Amino acid sequence: MPEIQPAEGDTLLRVDGESPKPRTPRLSAANPKEAIASVASSWMSRRFLGGCAVLFPMVVTVYITWWFLTFFDNFFSPVYESVFGFHVFGLGFVTSMAFILMTGVFVSSWLGGLALQLGEWIIKKLPLVKHIYSAAKQVSAAVNPANETAQSFRECVIIRHPRHGEYAFGFITGHTRLQSEKGDMSLYSVYVPTNHIYVGDVFLMGEVDIIKPNLSVREGLEIVVSVGMALPPNLRAL
């Protein structure tokens, strides 16, 4: 008599009317080894990612610091090697910092200001160099604490952008008054970075649409550069 195969989903009944007990799959000899390997792999993955999370900021900090020291040290180290015949790492960096300080002191005097104006006049006459110098000067003017012109970041603010219920960090860069038949309106130019600090949009907004938090310009820049990871746990509107 041919054996009848059950269809999918059917339950076989024994001759005595009792349903057979479900069979328990036997564990092969390879299953314990696979379980141990899976646990070890998961444990190693978590520990490896934890190590990356700890070492990444340290490595980045050390690398940027070392690059900064080496970059400024290379300005005057060749001078010491050619004149005195020795090289001491860090001596060129100290000399560079002293040179920058003395440049700031010299430019603040009337003679230094005159020399700076003469140098800028010569640079602005060059075809290609004048555009590079102009862009670099605007960048330095924005972060210069001694600059009080409209190009500098005056305050860090929060605005409602781009939709209702969403907010964005911005920086006040200027102020103007819009005259109309209904009266004058006070407007602030708010710079909102979109990709990097110096790539963004400028909005003219009224004072009622601007929220001024307890953040300095430096803290606002840190939040933007860190893509929001430097955001403090609490903000307070002034």
From TrEMBL:
The chain crosses the membrane at residues 48-69, 89-116. Residues 11-21 have a biased composition (Basic and acidic residues). The keyword RNA-binding does not apply. Residues 1-28 are annotated as: Disordered. The keyword Membrane applies. InterPro entries: COV1-like. One of its GO terms (cellular component) is Golgi apparatus. Keywords: Membrane, Transmembrane, Transmembrane helix. This is Integral membrane protein. It comes from Apatococcus lobatus.
